[in-house]
Amino acid sequence: MIDVIVAGGGPTGLMLAAELRLHGVHVLVLEKDTEPTPYVRALGLHVRSIEVMDQRGLLERFLALGTKHPAGGFFAGIGKPSPERLDTAHGYVLGIPQPLIDRLLAERATELGAEIRRGGELVGLSQDDAGVTVELADGTLVRSRYLVGCDGGRSTVRKLLGVGFPGEPTRVETLLGEMEVAAPQETVATVVAEVRKTHLRFGVGPLGDGRYRVVVPARGVAEDRAVPPTLDELRQQLRAFAGTDFGVHSPRWLSRFGDATRLAERYRVGRVLLAGDAAHIHPPVGGQGLNLGIQDAFNLGWKLAAEVGGRAPEGLLDSYHTERHPVAADVLTNTRAQMELMSTEPGPRAVRGLLSELMDFEDVNRYLVEKITAIGVRYDFGEGHDLLGRRMRDVGLKRGRLYELTHGGRGLLLDQTGRLSVEGWSDRVDHVVDVSEELDVPAVLLRPDGHVAWVGEDQQDLLGRLPTWFGAPAG
């Protein structure tokens, strides 16, 4: 029997498949589209996702195809510089279009042994105490022990489960597309800069090869938002906002998106789980959606692998919802706030001006950047050291870097004392005795996702914490 079926072959599903394969889990990815999507729906990786790739030894692949940009100016498009002293070794945003992200993650999952089946559309599911039966559009039935719905905002898996998806419907809609532009690039840049002084949801930017990404507010909200706009509709809106349509032509694709904000009531129903846009949708301001999904997968992968392998302590798989649901709720809140701040109404514009002044204070700017880039996330592990529950930044060691030790997706005890032991858990946790000038605690225990599970130097205290995340000792 297949261990885990992943419904959806986007960034979330592919990241999850790769994480599961690190632990030997038999994974089948079902993607309904027969070919990879060429659409550039997302434009890059934020700091935490960059760290995730570094933790798994993938970052060089992404850097080779991307462009580094400052990590500032993302909150509601308020133009502030990247703050100093960000708590990361990767204080930048990586511009890399989603088709390349998808390709790199698919290559990674395949290298590790995941099967990706294109044209495999899930249309039905049922579950029992032993597993999940998935029905495909061609009538094929596939059986697995677990199923994870990574199948987007209109998730079939979520609907079949009957999981509530409360929130607000779309109030304003935006047209989006990729096409060629007849006007000179200098003219486009000048006009766009003028329009964006008042309309921050407007943009026309070059993608290379003569192609442009065009974003413009729609006239209203379409009755059927699944129907893409026409080129004439997009031209009309360009003229309404910019006084010109820039001679747009030869669209590669056209789409529309709204500002609907919804969060699944539960991330798990029995043997079926939800991740990425299947669990949460929100406006794309701040560029957080793709990153949030990748980070969902990073949290879930090792936990589900432990459950499949019979090593998971009680409650470990449920901690996926406990930890990630509040993170998504916070993203929904900050995107709601950003949408308000991007309004052309006098009240929101006044608040935007005041916030812009406050962001001149370094601490305020840093706080908002850490929120958007997700390096400020802290899971609730109870009382303890300030590092507890936070992800550990990459630090230099005497014999290399911390993230170089995390490529295998195992737990890690970084021991600067040389007196500690993980005997009984060495099949799941690596024990590294090394020192770092950047780390002022005796030792830290990291979960496979890099979050700090324990800080200290007492062996008995460590032994009390290891079972919480890694189960009973072997033998």
Proportion of residues in helical segments: 25-40%
Domain count: the total is 3
Number of strands: 24
Mean pLDDT: 94
Class of the largest domain, according to the CATH hierarchy? Answer: Alpha Beta
Distance between the termini: 27 Å
β-sheet strand percentage:
15-25%
Query: How can the largest sheet be summarized?
Result: 8 strands, mixed
Structural class: alpha+beta
Q: For this structure, what is the CATH homologous superfamily of the largest domain?
A: FAD/NAD(P)-binding domain
Shape: globular
Count of helical segments? Answer: 12
CATH architecture label name of the largest domain:
3-Layer(bba) Sandwich
**What Rg, in angstroms, do the CA atoms define?**
23 Å
CATH topology of the largest domain: FAD/NAD(P)-binding domain
List strands and helices in order, with pairings:
Layout (H helix, E strand, L loop, with lengths): L1 E6 L3 H11 L5 E5 L12 E2 L1 H9 L3 H7 L1 E4 L21 E4 L2 H14 L3 E4 L3 E6 L4 E5 L4 E9 L6 H6 L5 E2 L4 E8 L4 H11 L7 E6 L2 E7 L13 H12 L6 E10 L2 E3 L4 E2 L2 E3 L5 E2 L7 H20 L10 H23 L4 H13 L3 H12 L22 E2 L2 E2 L9 E5 L13 E5 L9 E4 L5 E4 L3 H12 L5
Parallel strand pairs: 1-2, 1-9, 2-6, 9-17, 21-22
Antiparallel strand pairs: 3-5, 4-5, 7-8, 8-9, 10-15, 11-13, 11-14, 12-13, 15-18, 16-17, 19-20, 21-23, 23-24
Helix pairs in contact: 1-4, 1-8, 8-9
Keywords: Monooxygenase, Oxidoreductase
Protein name: Rifampin monooxygenase
Organism: Streptomyces pratisoli
